[in-house]
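Budget justification note: compute hours in this period were largely spent on complex prediction jobs such as the one shown. Inputs:
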Amino acid sequence: MRTCFLFLIMSLLASNLWAASVLNVDIYGPGQTRVNLFLAPPLPREQAGSLAIIPDNAPEQLQRRIQANCAFLPFFKILAPQDIVGGPSSGGYVGKNIDFNKFRLSRADVLVTAAWARAGALGEVELRAYEVYNGRLIVGKGYSLLSSQQIPEAAARFCADLMEALTGHGDFFRSNLAFVKKEGARKQIYMSTAQGLNVQKITNLDGICVSPAWSHDGQKLAFVFLDKRRHNLCVWDRRTRNLVREHLPGNTLIAPAFTNDGSVAITLDIGGNPDIYRLAPNFRIAGPIVQNWGIDIGPDFDRSGRKMVFVSNRLGNPHIFIKDLASGNVRRVSMTGKYNTGPSISPDGSQVVFAQMMSGGRHKLFLVDLASGYERQLTFGPGSDEDPTWSPDGYFIAFSSDRTGPNQIYLTTKHGDEPILIPTGPGVSTSPAWGKL
Amino acid sequence: MRVNLERRTYEVDLIGVAHKGKAGAKRATSGPAKAEQRKAAPKIPDVTPAPAQKKPEKKALPEKVVPEKTALPLTTNATKEAPPKPEAKKEAVAKPQKAEAKKAAKVEKKQTKEDILAAALGDAKKTAATEEKAPPQTGDALADALASVERDVSGQGKGTAGDGTAEDGPGEGDSTGSLADWYAGQVQKAIRENWRFPRFSNVVLATTVELRLSRGGEILSSRIINGSGRVDFDASILRAIEDTKILPPVPEDVGDTVVATFYNTENQ
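Corresponding output:
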C-alpha cells in the first residue's frame, strides 16, 4: 500500500519534471501570406529539340500570360530570373530531372515548368507546377494549341487549375465581370473576363444603362435602362444573346438582383415609396419582399437564396440590413458610419461588404462578418470606392474607384489586399457585377 | 467557416521587462504579493478591480469638493493606509483629475477587456455600477465623506489585486513565467519570419511539430506530431523550420524540446 502510494508520488513528480522541460509555442499565421513562385524558362519536350521551331514566339507569349495571370493572385510573389541561385534554368521539366536544390536555396516555393513540342499548326505544351520543398507535383496539364489566339485561354485554364489545387477555388480565371461604361451622354453594359480580357460591348441602347446584376448560374444579366420617357427592366441572355425589355408599374426602378431560383428582385415605388418586390418569371409583380415606410433598395442574395442584404433608411440614415427570408427576420448589419450603401453578400452568406461614406464625401469599403458582427474597413487611400461585388469563390471583391482619376474597376480580397486595376479599356468604368462563368 | 474571428482565451504574453507604472496596468506580480492581494479581495474576481478602482475614485471627487474642510482629517487618515499613488492623484485639483480618471478608466477598460473573459468584465461593470449607485446621500456631509472614503479604501485594495488578472499562464509557478514565455516569443518570431503560406482557406488548419534544440539554439531535429491533413501546409511549416536553422540560445531553466503548434489563421 505504502509502496503504491510512494510510486504514485514519484511518477507524479517525474511527470511534472518532464512536463516542465517542454516549451509550448503557438504560432498564429505565417509571417508572409505570399508564396514565392518562379516560372522556369520554357524547354523543348525532346532533348535534342529546339524552341525556335514553334511559330509566333508562342512559348514566350504563354510565359508572359501566365505571369500576368499570377500577378492577379495576391498570394503569389513572382521571382525574377536573377533571384535564382545558379541561373534560372530548371535542368528539366519533369520532377526527376529538375534540380530543386537551387530553387530551395533561392527560397522559391512553387516552380512552374513548360515543355513544348511542335504539332499541327502551332504546338502542344505541357505545364507543370511543383512544390519546391519536397518536389511534389501540384498540378500538371497538357494543352494542344491550334493558333496563338488560344494562348490566353490555355494560360487562364492552367492558372485556374493551379489556383484550384492550392485553394479549392479556381473560378477566378473562369469568371466574367459585367460593368457600365460611359459613352458620351449614354452608358452601356460591357463584359470581360475577371482579369479584363475579351472586353465586349453588350448593349447599344439610346439611353443610360445602370446597375447590372448576374443570375446565379451566370447565364442572365439584369439591368435598368433609362430612356427618354421611362425606366425599363432589361434582361440579357448570354446564350441566345437576346435582350428582353420590360415596363414595370410605378415611376422608379432601382437596382435589380437575382434570387437563387432565377427570379428578379427589384425596387419599385408603386406603394408610394421605394420598396423591394419579387417578380414572377413573366415579370409581373409576385409580391413584396421588404415593405417599410422608409426607402429600401439594393438587394443582394447569397447562393442559397435564404439571405438578402439591402439598404434602408428606416432608422434615419441609410444603413445595411439583412433579411432572413425563411423567418422574415430583419436585422441591422452596418453599425458604424452615417451613410452606408451598395451591399454585397458573399456567396456562402457569411460576410457582407458595403461602401461607407467617410468625411469629405468619399466612400470606403467595409466588411462585416455576420457571425461575429466584427466590422472593419477594407480599403484605404485616396478617392472614393463604391459598388463592391463578391467573386463566386467568396475571396475576391471587385469595386469601382476613382483613386487614380476617372472611375475604374479594381480588385481586392476579403483580407483587404492592395487593390489592383482590372483594365477595361479607356474611359470611365463603374458598377462591376461578378458572374460565375 | 467562421474561424479566425473566434475569440480564444489564452495566456498573456509577458515578454521582457515588467510594465512600470500606472495603477491597474498589467504587471508580472511576484508570488507573495499576489497571495496578499488575493486575500484582500476574496469575493470579487481579480478582473474587476481596474475599472472598479477608478470609478469609486471618480465618484469620490465631486463629493469631496463640498465637505472639504471637515473631511480633510479623515481623508488623510485613510490615505495613510492606502497605497501612495492614488492618494497623490486625489490631492490634485478636482476637475482635471476627474478627466484623467475617466481617461485612465477607459484605457484600463481597454487593456483589461482584451485579457479577461467577457463574463468577468460584465461582472466588473455590474459591481462598479452598483458601487457607484450605492452611496445613499444621508444629507450628512461628514457621514457621506466617510462612506466615500471607505469605499475608496476598499476599492483600492481590490484595485491593486487586479494587476495579476486573468493570466495564470503556465501553471502558477511564476518562475517559469516570464523567461519561458519570452523564449517562446523569440521562437515564434524567428520561425514566423521564414514561414510563407497563402491566406485563402476558410478552414482552420493546425499542425503540431516537435523541435529538439541544442543549448545554443540550433534546431537539431523536427518531426510532425499532428499533421493538418494538407500536404502543402505541413510542407510549408517544415520548410520554415529548416530555413530558420538556428534560434536564440536556450535559457537555462527552459528545456531543449519545443512543441510548436502552427495555425493558418491570425488570432483576432
